[in-house]
Design a protein that fits this description.
It is a single chain. Helix 1 packs parallel to helix 5. Strands 1, 2, 3 and 4 form a four-stranded antiparallel sheet that branches. A hairpin with an 8-residue loop joins strand 1 and strand 2. The protein is an alpha+beta fold. The longest helix is centred in the last third of the chain and has 33 residues. Helices cover 67% and strands 12% of the residues.
Length: 159
């Protein structure tokens, strides 16, 4: 279990970097603002939604064929982010059943801390999360690469 948690922690940094680089390929000037919105507290969800809408508008303008894939990738990112945060920002409780790990996620909204319901995770949950993170990383890098290639081809008059 410790190895899976370590890999999840390490891969989260990779996902953050991948998303940031893809955001830079969309708009260098707004990438920092978007990154901050995507990794802010739940209390700032409206800010994240606004950033997501702005990014979607830019992608739709630049490369409309990519928009659906990009939106699906952001949906997957949000799902992975919720599952990862539930583990990373949680109290790990005493184990009562072998290979069943109870965790109680903490939520910080501004100055208040609250507890989400306890969830029990197992090795399959952790393995699935790691696999989804790996797939998501490939998707995010592909989006960034496709946008950069599209920009270059457009410059050269090929698109």
């Amino acid at each position: 279990m410790a190895h899976l948690l370590s890999q999840i922690t390490m891969n989260w940094g990779k996902l953050e970097q991948a998303l940031y680089l893809s955001m830079k390929s969309i708009d260098v000037g707004q990438a920092n603002e978007w990154r901050e919105a995507f990794f802010s507290t739940p209390a700032l969800a409206a800010r994240k939604e606004k950033a997501r809408k702005n990014i979607g508008t830019k992608v739709a303008t630049s490369n409309p064929k990519l928009l659906t894939f990009f939106e699906e990738t952001l949906d997957r990112f949000q799902d992975v982010q919720h599952r990862r945060n539930a583990l990373s920002h949680a109290l790990w409780l005493p184990i009562e059943t072998p290979n069943q790990y109870p965790v109680q996620p903490l939520r910080y909204d501004r100055a208040n801390m609250s507890f989400d319901p306890i969830r029990v995770v197992d090795l399959k949950f952790l393995g699935d999360l790691l696999e989804d993170m790996t797939d998501l990383s490939r998707r995010i890098y592909w989006v960034g690469a496709e946008l950069l290639a599209h920009q270059q081809l457009k410059k050269w008059g090929k698109r």
